Amino acid sequence: MGVGTPYAVLVNGSAASGIRSVGNRIRLFRYDWVPAVAGYLCLLAGVLDVLAAIFPHMRRARVQTLAVALPGVVSTLATAASLIVGVLMVMLAHALRRRKRRAWRAVMVLLPTGAVLEALRWHQRVPAMVTVVLFVLLLIAHREFHALSDPRTRWRAVVNFLALTAFSFGAGLLIVSAHPKTDIGTPPLTDRLQHVAYGLVGISGPVQYASTRTSDLVYYSLAGLGLLTAATTIYLALRPSSPVPLLEETDERRVRALLARHGGRDSLGYFALRRDKNVCFSPSGKAAIAYRVVSGVMLASGDPIGDVEAWPGAIREFMDTATRHAWVPAAMGCSETGGEVWAREANLSALEIGDEAIIDTGSFSLTGRSMRNVRQMVNRIERAGYTCRVRRVGDLSEAEKAEIRDAAAAWRGTEVERGFSMALGRFGGSGDGDCVVVTAHKEPEAGAAAPGGNIRAILHFVPWGRDGISLELMRRDREADPGLNELLIVKALQQVPDLGITRVSLNFAMFRAALARGERLGAGPVLRAWCGLLLFLSRWFQIESLYRFNAKFQPRWEPRFLVYPTGRDLLRISVAALQAEAFLNLPRPRLRRRGKADPDDARGASTASEAREATAQHR
Fold first, then answer.
1. How far apart are CA 426 and CA 313, in angstroms?
2. Which of 49, 359, 487, 547 has its CA 20 to 30 A from that of 162?
3. What is the pLDDT of residue 27?
4. Alpha carbons 526 and 511: distance in angstroms, whole number
5. What is the pLDDT of residues 552-577, one digit of tens each?
6. pTM as predicted
7. Phi-psi region for residue 604, left (φ > 0), alpha (ψ -120 to 50) or beta?
8. How far is CA 417 from CA 70, 353, 408, 452, 585, in A?
9. 165: how many CB neighbours lie within 10 A of its CB?
10. Planar angle of CA 455, 459, 464, nearest 5 degrees
């Protein structure tokens, strides 16, 4: 090997790629802040254009004598067009902050268009300066805008139509009312609203102006808003739409194969089989991560599925997908081991969000003082005539499955089915024969019709490896006796060993450790304040009651974590998680009922019935 050879290898081989990597890091360090700044500047430029088009006093000419340099119709059309450009800039600002390539292209077209319109209107300098700065930033840092578009659905067309219609009516009312000096008479509010409604579809309304230029300006502005609303809605409705996230059959078979070999690692693994989740696999195919995209957050749940050795590959694939679409990556409900791998491989931070209650069936017993309340409750419910049955779902007939589905749907306290990270969202599906269902039975009173016949409460468990089950659904008839869920859990723990099950995962208790430590002697003021806040939030989210309900069965607690990129992403991730779990769709009547006392609380022996239902919906 000659003297020049190492140098050639250094330049042409791996070192060259290293130099390119360093160059990329320098470029990212210099320009990775541009999308956020450009998004805010785009928003500012759009707002200035909208305000200038609506309010006449913001359209002062630089030199009054030049006002006659252009025909009135030209400056009027320019003002109306500037309004449309401003609205589009506001709509694109968020996508620009998220590094969307299509938004960058659209803004690069709108900026010169806006500059020409500013010149035609002899506008002030501030919007022009913002336009120039924004254009230069976008041009220099064009490589930062690399993100692909989000998955599309037809609902975006509906949302766009409603939002733009509301904005157009509000802005149109301001435009109609912003020229009091040229109004003929004093038109009432009803006439102004009618004028706006007509103007949005291109028809002159009842409001009359003494100035032809003002009349044309109002007409073209309203017509432009109506045209923008119609055009964007039609575009969103007719463009090719991406399908709703769906676990395809081939992916489901691969996930089931991974669960068959490695499903015992994580009690949440089976929930990756939800139909509304997507899956990304490691390059070797030995590990997978199930996720859903909600409000720009790529949200995974639980640990990766499969061989631990292949987890890093699946995590890298997950992070690459998030980077390509500029989604915020996050995983909720990770175990301690999973959180460590996520933090190491993806450079994410971890936050403990609660504990999972796990019971070993071999050591469970109703004896002892600590189980006194549960024992008394179970005995009382059994004396009331309730019986329980524990079966595999595969052993049920189709008629029995239908009865259980009907009962569960009838007892659901919300219009939508809740759950994402700890819920399967179905019962008795093909391939779910290994699930376990526990039912409580009692004949209804004479003349009373009940969904599901004599079924009064249901527990549904999904497999957790070969020797475990994880609670997925807990529902009961609200007219049934309090304490029925305690009976179901006890009977399940006593009888599932006959099915070869040695461990049972119950519910997830949010911030359980904080509640437990906050009650201890010597807890500091910060911990007590945090505990007090959790107790306050329990009025809506049943945080404390779920913890109390789980603790009665003396489980062992396994911590669960949320992994996230930065602290500023936590609020966005939290909102996305609430959306995924369907807690943001909670109807108002449900909130009012939560304030009522439950008979169980009066006896001091159980949690509120709403808490039990929320327990099931949490899972």
1. 30
2. 49
3. 44
4. 15
5. 999 999 999 999 999 888 998 988 88
6. 0.69
7. left
8. 61, 23, 10, 18, 10
9. 16
10. 150
